[in-house]
Specification:
- The structure holds two protein chains of two kinds.
- By secondary structure, chain A is mainly α.
- In chain A, 73% of the residues lie in helices and 2% in strands.
- Chain A has a two-stranded antiparallel sheet with strand order 1-2.
- Chain A has two domains: 58 residues, no CATH class; 225 residues, MetI-like fold.
- Chain B is an alpha+beta fold.
- Chain B has two domains: 209 residues, D-Maltodextrin-Binding Protein, domain 2 (3-Layer(aba) Sandwich); 217 residues, Dipeptide-binding Protein, domain 3 (Roll), CATH 3.10.105.
- Helices cover 23% and strands 20% of the residues of chain B.
- Chain B has 15 helices and 23 strands.
- In chain B, a hairpin with a 2-residue loop joins strand 8 and strand 9.
- Chain B is globular, with a radius of gyration of 23 Å.
- Classes of the chains: A mainly alpha, B alpha+beta.
- At the A-B interface, helix 3, helix 5 and helix 7 of A face helix 6 and helix 12 of B.
Chain lengths: 328, 580
């Protein structure tokens, strides 16, 4: 187990290193000059050049990259134009939002976490639940309803579902407030009521995929020998389905969930835009549109961290769920 | 000066700016008032600069006024404020040397804000200006504002760390665009830039190497907001500016919400334009223009006293415009943001071809394609109608839909092949389709070349750019011809890149005429700029004027007092109040 963890963390670190190098190089591959975004008005060429010098953009790439990575680990001095000392983990300074990028991330990450984690719980419960029921009641009206539901969810787009939910529950019935983010610890009720539509919209769309996936897996598992053996030995149906079949059927679902949740934590841009929430996704898109390269770098890195961590977690869960899997 | 691509989210032209007729919501429906003209003047009577501002009919104290905007305000530090949102938010917590008294009906008077008058032209040569600071003006901590703090505010704008703000005053004082190399703020914090002095706590004196007749206008920008040296937190002032206006920052959740509370030390008797009606102003950032307008239309709870700072997007225009009940809650007003088809005169040298381009354009069709009267209003002059001294004319009268025959006659059987460079955003793509159609029916052969949206401005500012035509937009910082014509058409300023003169027009006689007008007393310049405007178009046709942007804003049922600023073309909050 420890050996497995060390190996996975090592490969995760390598992946993140590769992502950081690629993202950093992307700064220089992009057709725009990072400085022009920092000094959008009244900046003549001479002034722009001075800003480039001050920011170290004339230094060799390796020096710049080393400085960036050093900032993440130990912090660094960015100079008075960029707020002075930037403590670790220093992700640089954004000239677009005029603050340390870490402060931006610290502000928007809780929004994305608050959207994705409850929504993921909801879509997994709903999707896997529907899939299981559908498999166990194959061919019945329940199965047809569940399949119809998942087909509908899979065919719709989030911006449409979101707009309908807003129109019905916020603007027409006025049952819910306009979506907004309130920190969970400040006011749990406002936190939930401000985000519930985003959870429902995401859960509706994602659960459809999980319902279909878990139904197919469950049907396949139910036809396997070990299930027939368990039933032949006289085990009760709930025990066979719940303890044996479900565990075997759910492993592919965990894999997909790991990737989905990891990717969603990197930003749910359509959800955030539809509901007017400022999370990682919108921050990343806004940064790309504005050419805010330090923020692009940070959002790409953090998204990569989530995906990599989610995959390590999935591997660990495999061993916990399926006794046939051993970690080496 | 700001030149921007005529583009905005959702296809609606939301980026409007500078000057222009302004309007308060009259509830008369969605008809743009096309007749209003700028009546802007510089106040000569000191009484005009005294407070309090006239009461707004029906306004009461109390309540929270909410402003919803998609993206955060880029800078709150007055010396760095230049975005439209910043320029509209700043007067709530910052005062300047001068400011505009805007009646919401097209009347605009430049008055003293912190200064007793809009300035004294000491030798009548525009080289030496003096401003006397009013008695009783105070910061949010109750300490008096003197000429020293105003001078300090101007001095810190020389700091190269504090980028983003207007640079007129700095460049004029230093007599060079490289002002931060001429005087080092960080090394001289206890002194003042060259040409700026404070003979006594009531007097601020500017001495320039060249005549700067537009100084009273330039000091109406936030560069001249005062600051106490001990309150200067450098780049961090953006998070918490120190107030001299009727409100002060109570809480700033950067990028999420900005809350302003009343400043008890602001004295209405010293302020000729601002009020202090709401208990609180709250700027909320995040919702898209669609979401924000939907919120104020829904008119629930706190949104009843809210306005969407982003204008009504194209997707909602029909719904909003056709709902009679919403007419009371919308503001529709032309702005001073002028759009042109810019002709690169280095490449299109034949005057007849440029004149034919002017005859060929179907302005009516173009405006309809962009969304109609809630988006744009036709323009045939270089300066928008709201400019002081504006003269209405049409040098190439072709009717609303263009005159193809006249254009063909001028071309004399030629088929000029021209390249039209357009940004790859929705608005310019729509415009390109229309313009290409217009010009080709008149005998031109047009090749459209896309330019990445974020690179377009930089690219067309390069002297050797490869396009014959491109779409340009200009929004001046004050309604004076001096902030438009010399900036856009003085050929002596053309350099390798970074050009505002994007038609690359250079004519010695026109340049000399500009010099002559600039040397006139400010009050006499207006009509001369109007005449020069017409002369440039008739004799040289360096652009095809197309349209001015129109502001179309929606607000909740309890949001009152908002009007579209005549100077910047965005909602002004100096009269804002919450209806009972």
């Amino acid at each position: 187990m420890v050996r497995f963890l060390v190996k996975r963390l090592f490969s995760a670190t390598l992946t993140l290193f590769a992502v950081s190098v690629l993202t950093f190089l992307m700064f220089f591959a992009l057709p725009r000059d990072p400085v022009s975004g920092m000094c959008p008005k009244n900046c003549n060429p001479e002034r722009l050049e001075r800003v480039r010098q001050e920011l170290g953009l004339r230094d060799p790439l390796i020096t710049q990259y080393a400085g960036y990575m050093k900032g993440i680990v130990t912090g660094r001095d960015l100079g008075s134009a960029q707020g002075g000392r930037c403590d670790a983990p220093c992700l640089g300074w954004s000239y677009v939002s005029n603050e340390a990028v870490f402060d931006t991330i610290a502000r928007v990450l809780p929004v994305t976490l608050s959207i994705v984690i409850p929504a993921a719980v909801l879509w997994l419960l709903l999707g896997v639940g529907l899939g299981m029921v559908s498999a166990l009641r194959r061919g019945t009206w329940l199965d047809r309803v569940a399949i119809g539901f998942s087909l509908t969810g899979a065919s719709l787009q989030l911006y449409f579902v979101g707009a309908v939910l807003l129109l019905v529950f916020v603007y027409s019935l006025r049952l819910l407030p306009v979506p907004s983010y309130t920190p969970l610890l400040d006011d749990p009720v406002r936190w939930a009521s401000g985000l519930v539509l985003a959870w429902v919209a995401l859960a509706f769309l994602f659960s459809a995929i999980y319902a279909r996936l878990s139904r197919a897996q469950m049907l396949e598992t139910l036809s396997e020998d070990f299930v027939r053996t368990a039933r032949a030995k006289g085990l009760a149906k709930p025990r066979v389905y719940g303890r044996h079949a479900l565990r075997a059927a759910i492993t592919p679902v965990v894999t997909v969930a790991g990737l989905d949740v990891g990717a969603a934590l990197g930003g749910t841009v359509i959800t955030e835009t539809t509901f007017g929430l400022n999370g990682m996704g919108r921050t990343a898109v806004d940064a790309v549109r504005a050419g805010d390269l330090p923020t692009i770098m940070a959002t790409v890195l953090i998204a990569a961290v989530f995906v990599v961590l989610a995959n390590v977690l999935v591997d660990l869960l495999y061993a916990a769920i399926d006794p046939r899997v051993r970690l080496r | 000066m700001r030149r921007r691509a005529a583009a905005a989210a959702g296809g609606a032209i939301a980026l409007v700016a500078a000057l222009g007729a302004c309007s308060e919501n009259t509830g008369e429906g969605t008809t743009v008032d096309t007749d209003r003209k700028q009546t802007g003047v510089i106040a000569t009577d000191p009484k005009d600069s005294q407070g309090p501002a006239a009461e707004v009919a029906g306004a009461q104290k109390g309540g929270t006024f909410t402003i919803i905007r998609e993206t955060p305000i880029s800078h709150l530090d007055p010396q760095r404020t230049y975005s439209f949102a910043g320029l509209m938010a700043s007067p709530l917590f910052a005062r300047y040397l001068t400011t505009w008294k805007d009646d919401g009906k097209g009347g605009l008077v430049l008055v003293g804000d912190l200064a007793e008058t809009p300035g004294t032209n000491v030798n009548n040569d525009c080289k030496v200006w003096e401003f006397k600071v009013k008695d009783g003006v105070k910061f949010e901590d109750g300490t008096p504002i003197t000429s020293k703090e105003i001078a300090y505010g101007i001095a810190r704008s020389f700091d190269p760390d504090l980028t983003g703000g207007p640079t007129y005053v700095q460049e004029w004082l230093a007599d060079t665009a490289q002002y931060d190399t001429r005087w080092d703020f960080k090394a001289n914090k206890t002194s003042l830039p060259p040409g700026l002095s404070t003979p006594d706590p009531k007097t601020l004196r500017f001495e320039f190497a060249k005549p700067r007749c537009d100084l009273p206008f330039a000091v109406s920008l936030p560069t001249t907001a005062p600051l106490k040296p001990e309150q200067d937190t450098g780049v961090n002032l953006d998070a918490r500016p120190f107030s001299s206006g009727p409100y002060k920052v109570a809480k700033n959740q950067v990028g999420v919400q900005l809350t302003l509370d009343r400043n008890p030390h602001w004295d209405p008797k010293t302020d000729p334009v601002r009020h202090q009606y709401p208990d609180q102003f709250v700027w909320t950032f995040g919702p898209t223009a669609d979401a924000a307008v939907n919120r104020v239309i829904a008119d629930n709870g706190a949104d009843q006293s809210a306005i969407s700072f982003n204008f009504v997007p194209a997707s909602l225009v029909a719904r909003v415009a056709q709902d009679a009940a919403l007419k009371q809650r919308t503001i529709l007003s032309p702005t001073p943001s002028a759009n042109q088809l810019v002709i690169n005169t280095q490449r299109v040298k034949d005057l007849k071809v440029r004149q034919a381009l002017n005859y060929a354009i179907d302005r009516d069709g173009l405006i309809k394609a962009l969304g109609g009267q809630t988006v744009a209003q036709p323009l045939t002059t270089l300066m928008p109608p709201a400019t002081i001294g504006y003269k209405a004319y049409d040098a190439y009268p072709a009717g609303a839909n263009g005159n193809v025959d006249k254009a063909k006659e001028l071309l004399g059987g030629q088929t000029p092949e021209l390249v039209l460079g357009v940004a790859d955003n929705t608005t310019e793509q729509q415009m390109a389709t229309q313009l290409k159609g217009n010009l080709e029916r008149a005998g031109f052969k047009i090749t459209v070349r896309n330019i990445p949206d974020d690179a377009k401005l930089d690219e067309i500012k390069k002297k050797d750019n490869p396009w014959d035509l491109y779409i340009g937009n200009w929004a001046a910082d004050w309604p004076s011809g001096a902030s438009i014509l010399p900036v856009l058409y003085d050929g002596r300023s053309i350099k390798a890149e970074g050009n505002s003169n994007q038609s690359y027009f250079n004519d010695a006689a026109i340049n000399a005429e500009m010099d002559r007008i600039l040397a006139l007393p400010p009050a006499q310049q207006g009509p001369e700029w109007g005449k020069l405007d017409e002369r440039i178009m008739k004799e040289h046709a360096p652009v095809v004027p197309l349209f001015v942007d129109v502001a179309y804003a929606a607000h909740g049922s309890k949001a009152g007092g908002v009007f579209i600023s005549s100077v910047f073309g965005y909602p002004s909050f100096v009269n804002a109040h919450v209806k009972p």
